Description:
It is a single chain. By secondary structure, the protein is mostly beta strands. The protein contains one helix and eight strands; from the N terminus they run αββββββββ. It has one helix at about 5-20; strands at about 30, 30-35, 40-45, 55-60, 65-70, 90-95, 105-110, 115-120. The strands form two sheets. It has a four-stranded mixed β-sheet, with no helix packed on it. The chain has a four-stranded antiparallel β-sheet with strand order 2-3-8-7, with no helix packed on it. Strand 7 (about 105-110) and strand 8 form a beta hairpin. The longest helix has 13 residues, at about 5-20. It is rod-shaped and about 105 Å long. The termini are far apart.
Amino acid sequence: xxxxxxxxxxxxxxxxxLTGAGTWTRPSAMAMDAYREGDEYVVAFDLPGVSADAIxxxxxxxxxxxxxxxxxxxxxxxxxxxxxxxxxxxxSRQLVLADTLDTERIKADYDAGVLTLRIPIAERDKPRKIxxxxxxxxxxxxx
Length: 143
């Protein structure tokens, strides 16, 4: 079997072993991307190997919290682990959402290990045009 050595991967693995897996009281961070697309903000979290029922999303006021747990895969009794690099445990991320976002209408989708949240901009905060009254609105004052 051909094995390739990556010293940085080994350092990451060692650091993870020293700090341990994430727990509910001390979760590990998860990678994410955030961007605006039209009239909504999109936030995508990488959660490979996490089942949809192990994801917990909460919003309290303007604080969004995403927690997920990657559980060990059950193996047969005669299985012998040769290499284990995929981190297990709890992952979490908190975001402070702007007041201009509508937290009542957040949509969540989970596909191919990516959790995608779509947060619409509140109607009251979308740009809008205001019409200006013309000459017909002018009146003459008589004494």
